[in-house]
Design brief:
Largest sheet of chain A: 6 strands, mixed
Number of strands of chain A: 11
Distance between the termini of chain A: 35 Å
Shape of chain B: globular
Order of helices and strands of chain B: EEEEEEEEEEE
Largest interface: A-B, 25 and 27 residues
Order of helices and strands of chain A: EEEEEEEEEEE
Oligomer: heterodimer
Number of helices of chain B: 0
Helix content of chain B: under 10%
Number of helices of chain A: 0
Helix content of chain A: under 10%
Structural class of chain B: mainly beta
Structural class of chain A: mainly beta
Radius of gyration of chain A: 13 Å
């Protein structure tokens, strides 16, 4: 059983479309990270959020941390083929205990 | 700074054998965590080492073990390999104590195939 549930599991869209992926848990996190992983490589950190209600923007990516620090969303505006990859959320429970969701596999078609 | 490095990148073993994987963290990072990634289970936490001590452990059998050296380099060992151990093994280092927010910096992984 995953402590963090990510949805959708798979997403295939056309270039230029917008999308939102979600990360939910019944537990409260001290921090939450989003990573992107490409085939054959390790995950690469995109953002860390630590404050309930926090919103961070990274170019066309907008990350939101829920007020109760149990959930998060990632919104991509005008998706590009280069956004293709596996998007993982990871929750921190204490000093260095990290748990990952199963990921959302995004495919952006040109 | 150089990133996290893992060796070897690819490995093929047969059932019953054992394997040792190596990880060199980012210079200055003292925490090293290991994860197993499979298509069915996603990214599963194996264990975390800090200053040569195992500080956290995931839910894996005793066949999975690890250690960390004084230079923060880490190894993990899997004994009596099973077919289900085929996976991408990822190492991540962490810059603890400097406002890092538990951010993990991953290596490229070792792809282990058990035949």
């Amino acid at each position: 059983t995953q402590l963090l549930e990510q949805s959708p599991q798979f997403l295939s869209i056309q270039e230029g479309e917008n999308l939102t992926v979600y990360c939910n848990s019944s537990s409260v996190f001290s921090s939450l990270q989003w990573y992107r992983q490409e085939p054959g490589e390790g995950p690469v950190l995109l953002v860390t959020v630590v404050t309930g209600g926090e919103v961070k923007k990274l170019k066309r990516l907008t990350f939101q941390f829920g007020d109760a620090r149990k959930d998060s969303s990632l919104h991509i505006t005008a998706a590009q083929p280069g956004d293709t990859g596996l998007y993982l959320c990871a929750g921190g429970y204490n000093n260095n205990d990290m748990r990952f969701g199963a990921g959302t596999r995004l495919t952006v078609k040109p | 700074k150089a990133g996290v490095t893992q060796t070897p990148r690819y490995l093929i073993k047969t059932r019953g054998q054992q394997v040792t994987l190596s990880c060199s963290p980012i210079s200055g990072h003292r925490s090293v965590s290991w994860y197993q990634q499979t298509p069915g289970q996603g990214l599963q936490f194996l264990f975390e080492y800090f200053s040569e001590t195992q500080r956290n452990k995931g839910n894996f059998p005793g066949r999975f073990s690890g250690r960390q050296f004084s230079n923060s380099r880490s190894e993990m060992n899997v004994s009596t390999l099973e077919l289900g151990d085929s996976a991408l093994y990822l190492c991540a280092s962490n810059d603890i104590g400097q406002g890092s927010g538990n951010e993990q910096f991953f290596g490229p992984g070792t792809r282990l195939t058990v035949l």
